[in-house]
Design brief:
This protein is of the alpha/beta class. The chain contains 14 helices and 11 strands. It has a domain of 163 residues: Peroxisomal Thiolase, Chain A, domain 1 (3-Layer(aba) Sandwich), CATH 3.40.47.10. The protein is globular and about 55 Å long.
């Protein structure tokens, strides 16, 4: 037990055999109801699209897939399904195949990898598909067919959060979402002595860097940079434009630092590393290890301490050093998470990371790239699917297939930090297998 943060520690053990990602697929992240071409799409069609793309990328067919995992953050609330893994199976050739559904709020997509890797590392299966889907902007309309949906507005979303947090104590203590929105920024300012203006500039710079990455990404939801918006509005200074047009919504955060809730799906295929060449000529992306931690919302600094524990586990298991990390991906539905994850993982120096954002070094074309797909605030946040979208992005970058937003140095090692529902945290290390 660590007395500093009162968290039970876990020691990870090596996988019984090496497991690699050999195929990835992802839908565009979108507002399906806002476009006549996508209105009426269902989770089955979205998940099926991503799954078939992952199979195509891996060089496998549905018959090759021996088992699949399905993740969705809130299937009953969003879809009126209790067994959503079965509801989507017909869309990608899984009739008769075994499957499991899992749900860990916004960490679901990262734990989708945990589930799949464990299934293959155990030796039980050789080819496993895992993916997630979420329609975070268009939820099911009760008692109507699945393709009839309605806007998941903020009032409905806030109501749904009661299912995440402990209702006996947490909400009564005004924790949960009210606390977590500002916790990271407030803690960082106090710990390292930043002024309000310095933190404001840091958070807005994060949003600018992320949006520049998203603007080059054909699957991203938001494609116009803040620099472009500022010029169109007659401003020479982008941060000045953002401060005058996006008032603070909390003590620290403005709208550019909050998630863009939307619809999407993503999937991947894993197999034993030694078998990868049987299916594809592309370099396999080996999963070196995955650390996990959980922490309930009524505990202070949930994200901070959970990230430290999950990170400790995976570094201890793999022997990887922070200086070996070439790319960082992290769940940032509150954009401050980029700073917390970067410093907890050692990717950026403690107490100094904020300067990297202001200097633009964390954009896709900088020397310390973070969230090169645009993150939750620009790529979009389809809850469970977002974590898998991060894995999709990491694989493309590590193969050199990211197109216009390919980072300058081909990454060999990627660190992915997952966080969701004020309870689950994951730390994943991927490495290109030579």
């Amino acid at each position: 037990m660590d007395p500093k943060n009162n968290i039970n520690q876990t020691t990870l053990h090596p996988y019984s055999r090496s497991v690699s990602i050999i195929g990835v697929g992802c839908t565009p992240f979108m507002y399906t109801l806002d476009n006549p071409e996508t209105a009426g799409l269902t989770e089955g069609e979205l998940f099926g699209y991503a799954a078939l793309k992952a199979m195509e990328d891996a060089g496998v067919t549905p018959k090759d897939v021996e088992y699949y995992f399905h993740g969705q953050a809130s299937p009953f609330n969003g879809s009126n399904y209790i067994t959503p893994n079965l509801q989507v199976s017909e869309w990608f050739g899984m009739r008769g195949k075994g499957s499991i559904h899992h749900s860990e709020a916004c960490c679901t997509g990262y734990l989708a990898l945990e589930q799949a890797v464990n299934a293959v590392a155990s030796g039980k299966y050789n080819v496993v598909l895992s993916g997630c889907v979420e329609m975070g902007d268009a939820i099911a309309d009760i008692d109507k067919p699945a393709h009839f949906r309605k806007k998941f507005d903020d009032a409905l979303f806030q109501e749904s959060l009661k299912w995440i947090y402990d209702r006996a104590y947490t909400r009564a203590m005004m924790c949960g979402p009210n606390l977590h929105q500002d916790d990271g920024a407030a803690w960082y300012k106090q710990t390292y002595g930043l002024t309000d203006e310095e933190m404001d500039d840091t958070l807005l710079s994060m949003a600018c860097n992320s949006r520049r990455s998203a603007a080059k990404n054909p699957l991203a939801l938001a494609r116009k940079t803040y620099e472009e918006m500022a010029r169109e509005a007659g401003y020479e200074n982008t941060l000045e434009f953002m401060k005058e047009n996006f008032p603070k919504m909390t003590g620290n955060l403005r709208a550019p630092g909050l998630e863009l809730k939307c619809d999407g799906a993503a999937a991947f295929i894993v197999c034993p590393t030694e078998m990868a060449s049987q299916f594809t000529s592309k370099k396999p992306i080996e999963v070196l290890g995955i650390g996990n931690a959980t922490r309930e919302a009524n505990q202070p600094h949930v994200e901070l301490y959970g990230t430290l524990e999950a990170t400790r586990q995976v570094y201890e298991l793999t022997g990887v050093k922070p200086e070996e990390i070439d790319l960082l991906m992290t769940n940032d539905f509150f954009i401050t998470s980029q700073l917390i994850a970067a410093e907890c993982s050692g990717y950026l120096p403690k107490g100094e990371g904020w300067k990297y954002f202001i200097e633009g070094r964390t954009s896709y074309d900088g020397d310390k790239p973070i969230n090169t797909n645009g993150g939750r605030c620009s790529f979009g946040h389809a809850h469970a699917a977002s974590g898998v979208a991060d894995i999709y992005e990491a694989v493309l970058q590590m193969r050199g297939e990211a197109g216009e937003h390919q980072i300058n140095k081909l990454p060999k090692t990627t660190f992915i930090r997952g966080f969701g529902g004020a309870q689950n945290l994951a730390a994943i290390i991927l490495r290109t297998k030579e």
